[in-house]
Design goal:
The chain folds into two domains: 1-44, no CATH class; 52-113, no CATH class. Helix content is 39%, strand content 9%. It has helices spanning 3-10, 60-74, 78-100, and strands spanning 52-53, 102-105, 110-113. A three-stranded antiparallel beta sheet has the order 1-2-3, with no helix packed on it. A hairpin with a 4-residue loop joins strand 2 and strand 3. The radius of gyration is 31 Å and the shape is rod-shaped.
Length: 117
């Protein structure tokens, strides 16, 4: 295990810009200068989570209407309902579903809410 890893595993770190002296060079202590300040790690507070709100493609609405309508046409019972679906009920439902879709992404979680809630 290298010396830098030992220090890191012990919980100590140098401040940015400070380096270790190579063998044969005069250290700051030998030159009478101050010793580099080192400190134990402080308990890290999580940074405030940046929330990204996803937007959905508006072409998803007609896709819902067509796929559900074709599924209805393929069934015997759904064929008469498909007429009502394509004449307006499907468009209303798809618009309502699309407006309720929600997706938020943080650095720790993905929150997805389907449109039928």
């Amino acid at each position: 295990m290298s010396r830098g890893r030992e220090e890191a595993s012990a919980g100590w770190r140098f401040y940015r810009g400070q380096t270790r002296a190579s063998p044969g060079t005069v250290t700051q202590k030998q030159a009478g200068l101050s010793i580099p300040r080192m400190h134990p790690p402080s308990p890290a507070l999580p940074p405030p989570a940046a929330t990204v709100v996803a937007r959905f493609n508006p072409l998803y609405r007609p896709y819902l209407v067509v796929t559900i309508g074709l599924t209805m046409v393929a069934t015997v019972i759904g064929a008469p309902l498909a007429i009502v679906w394509f004449l307006g009920a499907g468009q209303w439902w798809a618009r309502h579903y699309f407006d309720k879709l929600e997706c938020q992404i943080t650095d720790r979680a993905l929150r997805f809410r389907p449109g039928f809630q």
